[in-house]
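User: Could you write out the 3D structure of this protein bound to protoporphyrin IX containing FE? I've included everything you need below.
Assistant: Certainly. Input first, then the structure.
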Amino acid sequence: MGDKRIRITTVSQKYIMALAGIFLMLFLVVHLSINLLMVVGDDGKLFGQAVQFMLTNPLIKITEYVLFGGFIVHILLGVILWAVNNRARPVKYSKSLKTENSMFSKYMIHTGVIILIFLFIHFFHFFFVKAGIVPIPEVAEGDKHDFFSMAVVTFQNPLYSFIYLVSFVFLGFHLKHAFQSAFQSLGLNHNKYTPAIKFIGTLYAIVISVGFAIIPIYFYFFY
Amino acid sequence: MKVTLKIWRQKNAKAKGRFVKYKLENVSPEMSFLEMLDYLNEQLIKSGEDPVVFDHDCREGICGACGLYINGRPHGPEKRTTTCELHMRSFKDGGTIVIEPWRSKAFPVIKDLMVDRTALDEIIRSGGYISVNTGSAPEANSIPVGKHLSDKAFDAAECIGCGACVAACKNSSAMLFVAAKVSQMAFLPHGKPEAADRVQSMVKKADVLGFGGCSNTYSCEHDCPKGIPVEFIAKMNREFFKAKVCKQKVE
Ligand code: HEM
Ligand code: SF4
Ligand code: FES
Protein backbone atom coordinates (compact mmCIF):
# COMPACT_ATOMS: atom_id res chain seq x y z
CA MET A 1 0.00 0.00 0.00
CA GLY A 2 2.98 2.26 0.45
CA ASP A 3 4.24 5.12 -1.62
CA LYS A 4 7.99 5.49 -1.44
CA ARG A 5 8.24 9.20 -2.22
CA ILE A 6 7.69 10.51 1.27
CA ARG A 7 9.84 8.83 3.88
CA ILE A 8 8.88 10.70 7.02
CA THR A 9 5.20 11.58 7.16
CA THR A 10 4.09 14.92 8.56
CA VAL A 11 2.50 13.02 11.46
CA SER A 12 5.87 11.47 12.38
CA GLN A 13 7.56 14.84 12.01
CA LYS A 14 5.09 16.44 14.38
CA TYR A 15 5.53 13.56 16.80
CA ILE A 16 9.29 14.11 16.92
CA MET A 17 8.84 17.88 17.13
CA ALA A 18 6.51 17.47 20.06
CA LEU A 19 8.95 15.21 21.92
CA ALA A 20 11.81 17.64 21.30
CA GLY A 21 9.54 20.53 22.26
CA ILE A 22 8.57 18.89 25.56
CA PHE A 23 12.23 18.36 26.34
CA LEU A 24 12.90 22.03 25.58
CA MET A 25 10.00 23.04 27.80
CA LEU A 26 11.44 21.01 30.69
CA PHE A 27 14.81 22.61 30.07
CA LEU A 28 13.21 26.05 30.34
CA VAL A 29 11.91 25.17 33.81
CA VAL A 30 15.40 24.16 34.98
CA HIS A 31 17.01 27.18 33.34
CA LEU A 32 14.50 29.55 34.91
CA SER A 33 14.76 27.99 38.37
CA ILE A 34 18.52 28.48 38.39
CA ASN A 35 18.36 31.99 36.93
CA LEU A 36 15.93 33.16 39.55
CA LEU A 37 18.63 32.52 42.13
CA MET A 38 20.29 35.65 40.70
CA VAL A 39 17.60 37.90 42.09
CA VAL A 40 17.52 36.62 45.68
CA GLY A 41 19.77 39.53 46.69
CA ASP A 42 22.99 37.78 47.72
CA ASP A 43 25.05 39.13 44.81
CA GLY A 44 24.93 35.82 43.05
CA LYS A 45 26.40 33.58 45.74
CA LEU A 46 23.67 30.96 45.63
CA PHE A 47 23.49 31.30 41.86
CA GLY A 48 27.24 30.72 41.66
CA GLN A 49 26.90 27.47 43.58
CA ALA A 50 24.16 26.29 41.24
CA VAL A 51 26.35 27.16 38.23
CA GLN A 52 29.21 25.22 39.79
CA PHE A 53 26.95 22.21 40.16
CA MET A 54 25.78 22.46 36.57
CA LEU A 55 29.34 22.74 35.32
CA THR A 56 30.67 19.74 37.20
CA ASN A 57 27.83 17.24 37.14
CA PRO A 58 28.50 14.70 34.34
CA LEU A 59 24.78 14.02 33.86
CA ILE A 60 24.21 17.70 33.14
CA LYS A 61 27.05 17.62 30.61
CA ILE A 62 25.37 14.79 28.72
CA THR A 63 22.01 16.53 28.93
CA GLU A 64 23.58 19.58 27.36
CA TYR A 65 24.35 17.62 24.20
CA VAL A 66 20.83 16.20 24.14
CA LEU A 67 19.57 19.73 24.52
CA PHE A 68 21.49 20.91 21.47
CA GLY A 69 20.21 17.95 19.53
CA GLY A 70 16.69 18.77 20.66
CA PHE A 71 16.98 22.36 19.49
CA ILE A 72 18.41 21.39 16.12
CA VAL A 73 15.80 18.71 15.47
CA HIS A 74 12.94 20.96 16.59
CA ILE A 75 14.11 23.88 14.46
CA LEU A 76 14.86 21.80 11.37
CA LEU A 77 11.49 20.05 11.46
CA GLY A 78 9.75 23.36 12.17
CA VAL A 79 11.24 24.89 9.04
CA ILE A 80 10.62 21.80 6.90
CA LEU A 81 6.97 21.57 7.97
CA TRP A 82 6.48 25.26 7.40
CA ALA A 83 7.80 24.91 3.84
CA VAL A 84 5.64 21.84 3.11
CA ASN A 85 2.55 23.47 4.60
CA ASN A 86 3.11 26.65 2.65
CA ARG A 87 3.21 24.79 -0.63
CA ALA A 88 -0.15 23.11 -0.02
CA ARG A 89 -2.09 26.24 -1.03
CA PRO A 90 -0.43 27.82 -4.07
CA VAL A 91 -3.40 30.09 -4.88
CA LYS A 92 -4.43 32.04 -1.79
CA TYR A 93 -7.96 33.12 -0.89
CA SER A 94 -8.83 36.71 -1.64
CA LYS A 95 -10.83 36.92 1.56
CA SER A 96 -8.65 35.76 4.41
CA LEU A 97 -9.89 32.93 6.59
CA LYS A 98 -12.42 34.11 9.14
CA THR A 99 -12.53 30.81 10.93
CA GLU A 100 -11.93 30.75 14.65
CA ASN A 101 -8.73 29.03 15.59
CA SER A 102 -6.02 29.01 18.11
CA MET A 103 -4.42 32.36 17.26
CA PHE A 104 -0.79 31.71 18.15
CA SER A 105 -0.75 28.48 16.12
CA LYS A 106 -0.65 30.56 12.93
CA TYR A 107 2.52 32.33 13.99
CA MET A 108 4.63 29.46 15.37
CA ILE A 109 7.29 29.85 12.68
CA HIS A 110 7.45 33.60 13.31
CA THR A 111 7.68 33.35 17.09
CA GLY A 112 10.09 30.43 16.59
CA VAL A 113 12.42 32.48 14.38
CA ILE A 114 12.36 35.32 16.90
CA ILE A 115 13.37 32.84 19.61
CA LEU A 116 16.16 31.62 17.34
CA ILE A 117 17.51 35.14 16.75
CA PHE A 118 17.28 35.74 20.47
CA LEU A 119 19.23 32.54 21.10
CA PHE A 120 22.12 33.84 19.01
CA ILE A 121 22.24 37.11 20.93
CA HIS A 122 21.92 35.22 24.18
CA PHE A 123 24.77 32.90 23.22
CA PHE A 124 27.04 35.86 22.52
CA HIS A 125 26.43 37.11 26.04
CA PHE A 126 26.89 33.87 27.89
CA PHE A 127 27.35 30.53 26.19
CA PHE A 128 29.97 31.62 23.65
CA VAL A 129 31.96 33.18 26.49
CA LYS A 130 31.98 29.86 28.28
CA ALA A 131 32.88 28.09 25.04
CA GLY A 132 35.77 30.50 24.50
CA ILE A 133 34.42 31.89 21.23
CA VAL A 134 33.71 35.35 22.66
CA PRO A 135 36.29 37.09 24.90
CA ILE A 136 35.50 37.24 28.59
CA PRO A 137 34.08 40.64 29.56
CA GLU A 138 36.21 42.76 31.92
CA VAL A 139 33.86 42.56 34.93
CA ALA A 140 34.17 38.80 35.03
CA GLU A 141 37.89 39.24 35.74
CA GLY A 142 39.06 36.33 33.70
CA ASP A 143 36.46 33.88 35.06
CA LYS A 144 34.53 32.59 32.09
CA HIS A 145 31.95 31.09 34.41
CA ASP A 146 31.12 34.31 36.25
CA PHE A 147 27.70 34.54 34.66
CA PHE A 148 26.41 36.79 37.39
CA SER A 149 28.79 39.62 36.47
CA MET A 150 28.07 39.05 32.82
CA ALA A 151 24.35 39.38 33.55
CA VAL A 152 24.96 42.62 35.41
CA VAL A 153 26.73 44.28 32.46
CA THR A 154 24.35 42.82 29.91
CA PHE A 155 21.18 43.97 31.59
CA GLN A 156 22.37 47.39 32.61
CA ASN A 157 22.45 48.06 28.90
CA PRO A 158 18.89 49.24 28.10
CA LEU A 159 19.00 47.94 24.56
CA TYR A 160 19.82 44.38 25.63
CA SER A 161 17.31 44.42 28.46
CA PHE A 162 14.69 45.54 25.97
CA ILE A 163 15.62 42.83 23.46
CA TYR A 164 15.42 40.18 26.16
CA LEU A 165 12.05 41.39 27.40
CA VAL A 166 10.53 41.48 23.92
CA SER A 167 11.90 38.01 23.19
CA PHE A 168 10.28 36.63 26.32
CA VAL A 169 6.92 37.95 25.20
CA PHE A 170 7.27 36.06 21.93
CA LEU A 171 8.53 33.00 23.77
CA GLY A 172 5.32 33.17 25.80
CA PHE A 173 3.25 33.27 22.60
CA HIS A 174 5.14 30.23 21.25
CA LEU A 175 4.62 28.31 24.48
CA LYS A 176 0.94 29.24 24.81
CA HIS A 177 0.15 27.19 21.72
CA ALA A 178 3.04 24.74 22.05
CA PHE A 179 2.17 23.16 25.37
CA GLN A 180 -1.26 21.79 24.53
CA SER A 181 -0.24 21.24 20.90
CA ALA A 182 2.47 18.82 21.92
CA PHE A 183 -0.07 16.66 23.76
CA GLN A 184 -2.39 16.70 20.76
CA SER A 185 0.46 15.68 18.44
CA LEU A 186 1.32 12.79 20.71
CA GLY A 187 -2.28 11.65 20.52
CA LEU A 188 -3.22 12.73 24.02
CA ASN A 189 -6.56 14.47 23.78
CA HIS A 190 -9.38 13.48 26.04
CA ASN A 191 -12.35 15.45 27.29
CA LYS A 192 -11.39 14.44 30.83
CA TYR A 193 -7.93 16.02 30.93
CA THR A 194 -7.54 18.24 27.85
CA PRO A 195 -9.15 21.29 29.51
CA ALA A 196 -6.62 20.90 32.34
CA ILE A 197 -3.75 20.62 29.86
CA LYS A 198 -4.87 23.83 28.15
CA PHE A 199 -5.11 25.64 31.46
CA ILE A 200 -1.72 24.44 32.68
CA GLY A 201 -0.21 25.36 29.29
CA THR A 202 -1.43 28.93 29.56
CA LEU A 203 -0.14 29.11 33.11
CA TYR A 204 3.19 27.62 32.04
CA ALA A 205 3.59 30.16 29.22
CA ILE A 206 2.90 33.04 31.60
CA VAL A 207 5.16 31.75 34.39
CA ILE A 208 8.06 31.13 32.01
CA SER A 209 7.91 34.46 30.19
CA VAL A 210 7.22 36.55 33.29
CA GLY A 211 9.80 34.56 35.26
CA PHE A 212 12.57 35.20 32.76
CA ALA A 213 11.51 38.83 32.41
CA ILE A 214 12.13 39.41 36.12
CA ILE A 215 15.88 39.07 35.60
CA PRO A 216 16.58 41.95 33.17
CA ILE A 217 14.05 44.08 35.07
CA TYR A 218 15.81 43.35 38.34
CA PHE A 219 19.27 44.21 37.03
CA TYR A 220 18.14 47.27 35.11
CA PHE A 221 15.98 48.90 37.77
CA PHE A 222 16.83 47.39 41.13
CA TYR A 223 20.45 46.30 41.16
CA MET B 1 -33.36 41.13 -0.54
CA LYS B 2 -30.74 42.68 -2.74
CA VAL B 3 -27.23 41.27 -2.82
CA THR B 4 -24.00 41.96 -4.67
CA LEU B 5 -22.11 38.79 -5.52
CA LYS B 6 -18.40 38.63 -6.18
CA ILE B 7 -17.90 35.23 -7.74
CA TRP B 8 -14.71 33.51 -8.83
CA ARG B 9 -14.91 32.68 -12.53
CA GLN B 10 -12.35 30.39 -14.10
CA LYS B 11 -12.79 28.65 -17.49
CA ASN B 12 -10.80 25.52 -16.63
CA ALA B 13 -7.96 24.21 -14.48
CA LYS B 14 -5.32 25.94 -16.62
CA ALA B 15 -7.01 29.29 -17.13
CA LYS B 16 -6.38 32.29 -14.94
CA GLY B 17 -9.43 33.05 -12.85
CA ARG B 18 -10.88 36.37 -11.76
CA PHE B 19 -13.73 37.76 -9.72
CA VAL B 20 -16.88 38.90 -11.51
CA LYS B 21 -19.49 41.09 -9.84
CA TYR B 22 -23.21 40.35 -10.15
CA LYS B 23 -26.08 42.36 -8.72
CA LEU B 24 -29.06 40.24 -7.78
CA GLU B 25 -32.48 41.63 -6.84
CA ASN B 26 -35.67 40.07 -5.46
CA VAL B 27 -33.79 37.42 -3.51
CA SER B 28 -36.04 35.82 -0.92
CA PRO B 29 -34.54 35.34 2.55
CA GLU B 30 -36.13 31.88 2.49
CA MET B 31 -34.03 30.81 -0.48
CA SER B 32 -31.21 28.43 0.19
CA PHE B 33 -27.80 29.64 -0.85
CA LEU B 34 -27.72 27.26 -3.80
CA GLU B 35 -31.23 28.32 -4.88
CA MET B 36 -29.95 31.87 -4.92
CA LEU B 37 -27.15 30.72 -7.25
CA ASP B 38 -29.71 28.82 -9.39
CA TYR B 39 -31.68 32.04 -9.60
CA LEU B 40 -28.56 33.92 -10.69
CA ASN B 41 -27.82 31.24 -13.29
CA GLU B 42 -31.33 31.43 -14.74
CA GLN B 43 -30.79 35.11 -15.36
CA LEU B 44 -27.33 34.52 -16.80
CA ILE B 45 -28.69 31.88 -19.16
CA LYS B 46 -31.55 34.17 -20.23
CA SER B 47 -29.09 36.90 -21.11
CA GLY B 48 -26.92 34.42 -23.00
CA GLU B 49 -24.06 34.30 -20.51
CA ASP B 50 -22.20 31.30 -19.21
CA PRO B 51 -23.82 30.10 -15.95
CA VAL B 52 -21.70 29.78 -12.81
CA VAL B 53 -20.57 26.19 -12.26
CA PHE B 54 -20.80 24.86 -8.71
CA ASP B 55 -20.93 21.38 -7.21
CA HIS B 56 -24.04 20.00 -5.48
CA ASP B 57 -26.10 16.87 -5.29
CA CYS B 58 -28.35 15.97 -2.36
CA ARG B 59 -29.04 19.51 -1.16
CA GLU B 60 -29.87 18.14 2.26
CA GLY B 61 -26.48 18.09 3.91
CA ILE B 62 -25.59 14.44 3.51
CA CYS B 63 -23.58 13.91 0.33
CA GLY B 64 -20.69 16.34 0.77
CA ALA B 65 -20.75 17.53 -2.84
CA CYS B 66 -21.50 21.17 -2.17
CA GLY B 67 -18.88 23.41 -0.69
CA LEU B 68 -18.19 27.06 -1.30
CA TYR B 69 -15.86 29.44 0.45
CA ILE B 70 -18.24 32.24 1.40
CA ASN B 71 -17.02 35.53 2.88
CA GLY B 72 -13.90 33.93 4.27
CA ARG B 73 -15.50 30.79 5.66
CA PRO B 74 -15.95 27.33 4.16
CA HIS B 75 -19.72 26.64 3.96
CA GLY B 76 -20.44 30.23 5.00
CA PRO B 77 -21.18 31.91 8.30
CA GLU B 78 -23.40 29.35 10.07
CA LYS B 79 -21.91 26.66 12.27
CA ARG B 80 -22.48 23.00 11.42
CA THR B 81 -24.20 23.89 8.17
CA THR B 82 -23.35 22.76 4.66
CA THR B 83 -23.56 25.29 1.84
CA CYS B 84 -26.74 23.64 0.59
CA GLU B 85 -28.44 24.08 3.97
CA LEU B 86 -27.41 27.68 4.31
CA HIS B 87 -30.17 30.24 3.75
CA MET B 88 -30.14 33.79 2.49
CA ARG B 89 -31.58 34.98 5.80
CA SER B 90 -28.06 34.52 7.20
CA PHE B 91 -26.88 37.42 5.04
CA LYS B 92 -27.37 41.16 5.18
CA ASP B 93 -29.82 42.79 2.79
CA GLY B 94 -27.81 44.95 0.41
CA GLY B 95 -24.53 43.30 1.42
CA THR B 96 -21.74 41.87 -0.69
CA ILE B 97 -21.05 38.13 -0.73
CA VAL B 98 -17.66 36.92 -1.92
CA ILE B 99 -17.71 33.34 -3.21
CA GLU B 100 -14.53 31.38 -3.94
CA PRO B 101 -13.77 27.73 -4.59
CA TRP B 102 -11.88 25.56 -2.04
CA ARG B 103 -8.24 26.48 -2.53
CA SER B 104 -5.70 23.73 -2.16
CA LYS B 105 -2.99 22.24 -4.31
CA ALA B 106 -4.72 18.88 -3.98
CA PHE B 107 -8.09 20.30 -5.16
CA PRO B 108 -7.55 21.73 -8.67
CA VAL B 109 -10.34 23.96 -9.94
CA ILE B 110 -12.41 22.27 -12.65
CA LYS B 111 -14.47 25.31 -13.53
CA ASP B 112 -15.56 28.42 -11.61
CA LEU B 113 -16.48 27.24 -8.11
CA MET B 114 -16.18 23.51 -8.75
CA VAL B 115 -13.04 21.74 -7.61
CA ASP B 116 -11.79 18.22 -8.18
CA ARG B 117 -11.86 16.36 -4.86
CA THR B 118 -10.66 13.03 -6.25
CA ALA B 119 -7.76 13.33 -3.80
CA LEU B 120 -10.10 12.51 -0.92
CA ASP B 121 -11.28 9.39 -2.77
CA GLU B 122 -7.67 8.42 -3.31
CA ILE B 123 -7.05 8.62 0.40
CA ILE B 124 -10.00 6.28 0.97
CA ARG B 125 -8.73 3.99 -1.76
CA SER B 126 -5.37 3.74 -0.01
CA GLY B 127 -6.91 2.00 3.00
CA GLY B 128 -10.20 3.48 4.13
CA TYR B 129 -12.16 0.25 3.85
CA ILE B 130 -12.49 -3.20 5.37
CA SER B 131 -11.50 -5.95 2.97
CA VAL B 132 -13.85 -8.76 3.86
CA ASN B 133 -16.69 -10.18 1.89
CA THR B 134 -19.75 -9.03 3.71
CA GLY B 135 -22.15 -11.83 2.81
CA SER B 136 -25.32 -11.84 4.81
CA ALA B 137 -25.58 -9.97 8.10
CA PRO B 138 -24.16 -11.89 11.08
CA GLU B 139 -26.28 -12.72 14.11
CA ALA B 140 -26.68 -9.44 15.99
CA ASN B 141 -25.04 -10.49 19.24
CA SER B 142 -22.09 -12.39 17.79
CA ILE B 143 -19.79 -9.33 17.84
CA PRO B 144 -20.51 -7.26 20.93
CA VAL B 145 -19.70 -3.54 20.60
CA GLY B 146 -19.86 -1.22 23.59
CA LYS B 147 -22.39 1.59 23.39
CA HIS B 148 -19.69 4.19 24.05
CA LEU B 149 -17.53 2.89 21.19
CA SER B 150 -20.37 2.55 18.74
CA ASP B 151 -21.35 6.15 19.53
CA LYS B 152 -17.80 7.32 18.93
CA ALA B 153 -17.56 5.36 15.69
CA PHE B 154 -20.82 6.90 14.57
CA ASP B 155 -19.61 10.41 15.43
CA ALA B 156 -16.58 9.83 13.21
CA ALA B 157 -18.73 8.30 10.49
CA GLU B 158 -20.69 11.52 10.22
CA CYS B 159 -17.94 12.94 8.00
CA ILE B 160 -19.43 13.52 4.56
CA GLY B 161 -16.11 14.07 2.80
CA CYS B 162 -16.87 17.63 1.78
CA GLY B 163 -13.32 18.93 2.21
CA ALA B 164 -14.23 21.97 4.29
CA CYS B 165 -11.52 20.96 6.76
CA VAL B 166 -8.96 21.30 3.97
CA ALA B 167 -10.44 24.60 2.88
CA ALA B 168 -10.39 25.96 6.43
CA CYS B 169 -6.87 24.87 7.29
CA LYS B 170 -4.01 27.31 6.83
CA ASN B 171 -1.95 24.31 5.68
CA SER B 172 -4.68 22.81 3.46
CA SER B 173 -4.34 19.75 5.64
CA ALA B 174 -6.81 16.90 5.23
CA MET B 175 -6.05 15.44 8.64
CA LEU B 176 -9.55 15.91 10.06
CA PHE B 177 -10.97 13.93 7.15
CA VAL B 178 -8.30 11.24 7.44
CA ALA B 179 -8.76 11.13 11.21
CA ALA B 180 -12.52 10.69 10.90
CA LYS B 181 -12.12 7.79 8.48
CA VAL B 182 -9.32 6.15 10.44
CA SER B 183 -11.15 6.49 13.77
CA GLN B 184 -14.49 5.31 12.49
CA MET B 185 -13.00 1.91 11.71
CA ALA B 186 -10.43 1.76 14.49
CA PHE B 187 -13.19 1.97 17.10
CA LEU B 188 -14.97 -1.13 15.84
CA PRO B 189 -13.88 -4.78 16.00
CA HIS B 190 -14.38 -5.16 12.23
CA GLY B 191 -11.81 -2.46 11.55
CA LYS B 192 -9.15 -3.60 13.98
CA PRO B 193 -7.36 -6.29 11.91
CA GLU B 194 -6.31 -3.75 9.26
CA ALA B 195 -6.01 -0.73 11.54
CA ALA B 196 -2.22 -0.50 11.49
CA ASP B 197 -1.90 -0.69 7.70
CA ARG B 198 -4.84 1.61 7.20
CA VAL B 199 -3.63 4.52 9.28
CA GLN B 200 -0.13 4.42 7.82
CA SER B 201 -1.27 4.27 4.21
CA MET B 202 -3.89 6.96 4.58
CA VAL B 203 -1.62 9.41 6.39
CA LYS B 204 1.13 8.86 3.85
CA LYS B 205 -1.28 9.18 0.94
CA ALA B 206 -2.52 12.56 2.20
CA ASP B 207 1.07 13.81 2.31
CA VAL B 208 1.89 12.48 -1.15
CA LEU B 209 -1.21 14.08 -2.67
CA GLY B 210 0.01 17.49 -1.57
CA PHE B 211 -2.13 18.20 1.50
CA GLY B 212 -0.25 19.95 4.29
CA GLY B 213 0.46 18.61 7.75
CA CYS B 214 -1.49 19.41 10.90
CA SER B 215 -0.35 22.41 12.96
CA ASN B 216 -3.11 21.92 15.55
CA THR B 217 -4.70 25.19 14.53
CA TYR B 218 -8.15 23.62 14.95
CA SER B 219 -9.90 25.70 12.26
CA CYS B 220 -11.11 22.45 10.71
CA GLU B 221 -13.19 21.59 13.74
CA HIS B 222 -14.89 24.98 13.69
CA ASP B 223 -15.85 24.81 10.02
CA CYS B 224 -16.67 21.13 9.69
CA PRO B 225 -20.40 21.01 8.88
CA LYS B 226 -20.67 17.77 10.83
CA GLY B 227 -18.76 18.97 13.87
CA ILE B 228 -16.05 16.30 13.67
CA PRO B 229 -13.81 17.13 16.67
CA VAL B 230 -9.99 17.32 16.56
CA GLU B 231 -10.03 14.69 19.27
CA PHE B 232 -10.14 12.25 16.35
CA ILE B 233 -6.88 13.67 15.00
CA ALA B 234 -5.30 12.76 18.32
CA LYS B 235 -6.86 9.32 17.99
CA MET B 236 -5.32 9.03 14.52
CA ASN B 237 -1.92 10.12 15.87
CA ARG B 238 -2.25 7.47 18.57
CA GLU B 239 -3.17 4.80 16.04
CA PHE B 240 -0.28 5.90 13.87
CA PHE B 241 2.20 5.66 16.72
CA LYS B 242 0.87 2.25 17.73
CA ALA B 243 1.22 1.04 14.15
CA LYS B 244 4.77 2.35 13.80
CA VAL B 245 5.94 0.88 17.09
CA CYS B 246 4.07 -2.40 17.24
CA LYS B 247 3.64 -3.52 13.67
CA GLN B 248 6.11 -5.93 12.19
CA LYS B 249 7.23 -5.23 8.66
CA VAL B 250 5.92 -7.88 6.30
CA GLU B 251 7.30 -7.65 2.83
C1 HEM C 1 12.97 26.95 24.05
C2 HEM C 1 12.48 27.05 22.88
C3 HEM C 1 11.31 26.29 22.29
C4 HEM C 1 10.36 25.49 22.88
C5 HEM C 1 10.21 25.14 24.35
C6 HEM C 1 9.48 25.05 21.83
C7 HEM C 1 8.40 24.20 22.02
C8 HEM C 1 7.52 23.84 21.04
C9 HEM C 1 6.47 22.87 21.19
C10 HEM C 1 6.18 22.06 22.45
C11 HEM C 1 5.77 22.83 20.02
C12 HEM C 1 4.53 22.00 19.73
C13 HEM C 1 4.87 20.82 18.90
C14 HEM C 1 3.64 20.14 18.41
O1 HEM C 1 2.66 20.79 18.07
O2 HEM C 1 3.65 18.92 18.34
C15 HEM C 1 6.39 23.76 19.12
C16 HEM C 1 5.96 24.00 17.82
C17 HEM C 1 6.71 24.72 16.89
N1 HEM C 1 7.95 25.29 17.08
FE1 HEM C 1 8.91 25.45 18.86
N2 HEM C 1 9.88 25.57 20.63
C18 HEM C 1 11.02 26.32 20.86
C19 HEM C 1 11.79 26.97 19.93
C20 HEM C 1 11.53 27.01 18.58
C21 HEM C 1 12.40 27.60 17.61
C22 HEM C 1 13.77 28.24 17.88
C23 HEM C 1 11.80 27.46 16.41
C24 HEM C 1 12.43 27.95 15.13
C25 HEM C 1 12.06 27.79 13.95
C26 HEM C 1 10.52 26.79 16.62
C27 HEM C 1 9.57 26.49 15.66
C28 HEM C 1 8.36 25.86 15.89
C29 HEM C 1 7.34 25.67 14.90
C30 HEM C 1 7.37 26.14 13.45
C31 HEM C 1 6.29 24.96 15.52
C32 HEM C 1 4.95 24.55 14.90
C33 HEM C 1 5.06 23.34 14.04
C34 HEM C 1 3.73 22.99 13.45
O3 HEM C 1 2.76 22.79 14.18
O4 HEM C 1 3.63 22.92 12.22
N3 HEM C 1 10.41 26.52 17.96
N4 HEM C 1 7.46 24.36 19.75
S1 SF4 D 1 -14.13 16.13 8.50
FE1 SF4 D 1 -15.88 17.56 8.32
S2 SF4 D 1 -15.07 19.20 6.99
FE2 SF4 D 1 -13.68 17.45 6.73
S3 SF4 D 1 -14.49 16.32 4.97
FE3 SF4 D 1 -15.45 15.39 6.80
S4 SF4 D 1 -17.38 16.50 7.04
FE4 SF4 D 1 -16.15 17.74 5.63
S1 FES E 1 -25.36 19.12 -1.73
FE1 FES E 1 -25.14 17.29 -0.56
S2 FES E 1 -24.26 18.05 1.26
FE2 FES E 1 -24.70 19.88 0.20
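The radius of gyration of chain B is 20 Å.
User: Perfect, thank you.
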